[in-house]
Design a protein that fits this description.
31% of the residues lie in helices and 25% in strands. A hairpin with a 2-residue loop joins strand 6 and strand 7. The longest helix has 33 residues.
Length: 265
């Protein structure tokens, strides 16, 4: 809206913006110049650092020239070196996680750790799975480690235990897992039975219904079930054998699954 002035002219409500330059004093001008120089120095330093990093990244001096393998017993070191895919790569951007994942996918590898060794080496620390015993389904026996992983290309000790799975006859493939709990239980009983009871376990069986059962060299069978209350179960087993004598137990079954209600049949 426009209004008429004193002489009849129309006045505008628009405000004119005057643009100008801020005039600094000598001290302020000096500080401003210093600030500009600092910004230029920082920018130049950043560019130089970036250029240096690029130079290091692409420098042949910082490229992986050797991959060292430590801990492999059954696995081939050249195979692991190739699988890592690290040779020739820059030390500054090594995909160590990806290399570890590829190596960990091998059936015999329990754990792996890759580490840089500047200026141009990498070390692979490999822990292989150790064969513990056999897991049998039907007529087929499979080598397993202490965690129940089915292994291939290795064998356990000559006197390694065998657990016969009476629940299933389905075949197993390397890398599959079987229940680890009965294996740990079988290992503990194998260790304690000879000294505590004077008998040796000659056969282990596993089923979902009974859990772990075993046969001794004295000719009798013991159903242990699971590992809960193992010390108590072993104490009952020892007491029964002492009371009746091992010679009177062949062909009989001692059932220890029900805590304070053992059964001999």
């Amino acid at each position: 809206m426009r209004r008429r002035g004193f002489f009849g002219r129309r006045r505008s409500n628009k405000v004119r913006v005057l643009r100008g330059r801020l005039i600094l004093g000598e001290r302020e001008e000096r500080l401003a110049r210093r600030a500009r120089r600092r910004r230029l120095l920082w920018a130049g330093g950043g560019l130089m650092a970036l250029a240096a990093l690029c130079g290091l990244y692409f420098s042949p001096l910082f490229r992986v020239q050797a991959v060292e393998v430590v801990g492999a017993q059954h696995l081939s070191a050249p195979e692991l070196q190739t699988l890592s895919g690290l040779e020739g790569k820059s030390m500054l951007g090594l995909p160590l996680d990806q290399a570890e994942q590829r190596i960990a996918s091998l059936n015999l590898v329990q754990s792996v750790q890759a580490e840089r060794l500047f200026p141009n080496r990498v070390r692979l620390r490999v822990q292989e799975r150790v064969p513990w015993g056999y897991w049998q389904r039907g007529d087929a026996r499979y080598v397993i480690d202490s965690e129940g992983v089915v292994l291939e290309g290795v064998s356990p000790a000559q006197d390694a235990p065998t657990i016969i799975d009476t629940t299933s006859s389905e075949g197993l493939t390397p890398g599959q897992r079987v229940p680890a709990a009965p294996m740990a239980l079988a290992r503990e009983i194998s260790k304690q039975a000879p000294g505590l009871l004077g008998v040796r376990v000659v056969r282990f069986e596993y089923s979902i219904q009974e859990g772990l059962a075993l046969e001794t060299d004295a000719g009798y069978r013991v159903v242990v079930g699971d590992g809960q209350g193992l010390e108590y179960k072993l104490a009952v087993w020892e007491a029964v054998q002492k009371a009746l004598g091992a010679q009177s137990l062949p062909g009989r079954v001692l059932d220890l699954r029900f805590g304070d209600r053992p059964a001999l049949r």
